[in-house]
Amino acid sequence: METLNKLGFFMMISNIIFLVGAIAVFAGDGLVQFLGAIFAWLILIFSIVICVLALLCFSKDKAISPLLAFLALLELAGLVLLTKPWFQPIGMFFVVNPAITEGIVLTCILAVVVGVIGYMSQRKYKDSGRGLVLGLISLVAGLFIFVLLFGVLASVNTNGYLATTLDVTEIQELPAMDPQYIRTTPMKVADKYATDAIQYPQHTPYTPPDVTMINNTPYWAYTLVPNGWVNEYNLKAAGAVFVDMSTIDKNVEIKDQELKIAAGLAITDEIYWNILMKNYWIDCERPMIVVYNDSIYTAVPYIEYEMHFAFPVWYTVPVWGGVFVVDAEGNINDLSPEEARANAILQGQKIFPEKLVLTYIKSQKYWKAKTDGNWGGAMNVWFDHKEEIEITDVSSQGNQQPFLLNTVDGLKWTVSTEPWGAANGIFRIYVLDARTGDITYKKFSGTEIGPVNACDYAKKNHPEVDWSQFHVVEPIPVTPDGILFWEVRVVPDDGSGISYVAFVDPKTGATVEFTKDKEIVAFLHGAEVPTDNQTNTTKYTYITGTVTDIDVFVQDGNTRWIMDITGGNKSNYFIAKAELLNLIIIEILSDVKIGDNVTAMIGQNNILMAIKIN
Q1: Would the pLDDT of 254 be above 50?
Q2: Greatest Cα pair distance in the chain
């Protein structure tokens, strides 16, 4: 009874902490709210301790012990209900993966049945612990078998469903970038610009940023959030920092406006806490700052999950749920996808969730599910690998796909994929409309240089550079004059600026480099690039044919190649100058023989700028 008295005392203390903590969290502010959060976690610990001790005392008092355990569980449930955003990731895991929940339930049933059978046979085998041992073995084995098996089945069904139901259209040409509003400044540099620009000792830019459009110009947008855990509880967000993405030069704007709820604030001031209190079973994107009528709004696209069943498992399919729009006063408006597209605040902004872009593209490797069913799609992914795609991993290049591009057809998410396996060429480039989610793709031969290798070609053009001090980042596809190039930025290790922007031809590896906005804009208008003295180079053209003659000689200390390339019935002589070429192209030229089929990029006055042996 002494232990039960202690449990009763613990229960009384726990109730007091529960009441004080709840009042502090929801009615307090600043450090009072911080203390309330500590109290809330103390309740959690007290409740678990009381439940365990009550169960241990069950044999001494079969009436009071269950009552104390019930009260502790009731208190624990109250805590979870009041602070449910804290526990949402755990709940969402089981909602998104119902097959795992199904596997756990079946495993527990199996363990109980086997344990009961083992218990009933204890006398026969004279083993008092037989039931418990068999039950535990069944539990461990069942968890491994059912959870693993059901998880695999659910993944196959989810990807097969998406592969067969998504409307994916092949296109012949990628949409052209809007040359007036190009994506130039990478996130690594923007982070540095934003941090260096602010003069607020108690606030700092919230990272990672997101892309917002202001007057059709793309900006990296950062919320100015309190710096340090004390300020997180005492202060509000102070506004936002905007870094212009469309220029090589530093262009930073700061807008001061208090935001009552935002990312990076504490508990009830945190934007996700408030959103999840309104709509719990969702996955939220990172917040996006939007400026409308000179006021700051925060937009948060979110994903919902549809439940489906295919014997023997339940599985979910992610769908675009809508967009939350939060004003500076903390008022939240939940918009459906249709309402979001029509909303004045969100006009011209990306609203389709970034997470869904990758999920939908990954599902396309299960393309055979359209003809052979879900298992046919899975067999191809596991064994045959026919026409199987892999999303190119460019995380080592400073940012990860998908990349948002401002095209003449509006905002588009782009995802470059490569063939399955060790290949690094381009297989397909997927383009998703950032406002509707419509999916298109352009197919390539797989021999073109992919985005990762494009960064390597940009490096090889400058062997004199110490590349431990510089990085080639964010390879994005652009199409000046309908010709695909990879646009990469070369930046110092500390992200203090852009050294230059390079465009790499995926057919040949030829690289064109610029250090001024006007040069980049001119290039994207059709590869006509003015220099400082206003002379122009002509557009690049391509010729594919057979090499019928080669002459190599040295002029003014530089190697020259004169080459006759016959394409169809047309014969052309072209000259290559070593001083105009990078080392890769020079090596290829040295290997070219009469009779080789080649593709060459030709510039002004029949100057050969790049070549590839087919």
Answers
A1: yes
A2: 105
pLDDT given at position 84:
87
Cβ partners under 8 Å of residue 395, min gap 6: none
Burial class (CB in 10 A: 0-12, 13-18, 19+), 327: middle
Rounded CA separation 241/539 (Å): 39
Q: Which residues, at least 6 apart from 53, have a Cβ–Cβ distance to it below 8 Å? A: 3, 6, 7, 10
Give the CA dihedral 47, 49, 55, 61, nearest 10 degrees.
-90
Asked if residue 24 has pLDDT above 60, the reply is no
Buried b / exposed e along 332-351 (16+ C-beta atoms within 10 A): bbbbebeebeebebbeebbb
User: Do residues 240 and 262 lie in contact, with contact meaning Cβ atoms separated by under 8 Å?
Assistant: no
Mean pLDDT of the chain: 83
> d(Cα 152, Cα 378) in Å, to the nearest integer?
10
| Number of residues that make up the chain | 614
Instruction: Tell me the pLDDT tens digit for each residue of 386-443.
Output: 989 999 988 776 678 999 998 888 999 999 999 888 777 899 999 999 999 999 999 9
**Alpha carbons 82 and 91: distance in angstroms, whole number:** 15
**In which residue are the tokens 């449930």 written?**
77
Report how far residue 235's alpha carbon sits from residue 258's, in angstroms, rounded to the nearest whole number: 10
Angle, nearest 10°, between helix axes 148-165 and 369-379?
A: 150
51 phi and psi, to 5 degrees? -60, -45
Q: Per the structure block, which two tokens stand in for 518?
A: 């006007």
For residue 357, count CB atoms less than 10 angstroms from its CB and return exposed for 0-12, middle for 13-18, buried for 19 or more.
buried
For residues 570 and 433, which has the higher predicted lDDT (pLDDT)?
Answer: 433
User: What local confidence, expressed as pLDDT, does residue 262 receive?
Assistant: 94
Encode 437-454: b = buried (16+ Cβ within 10 Å), e = exposed: bebbbbebeeebbbbbbb
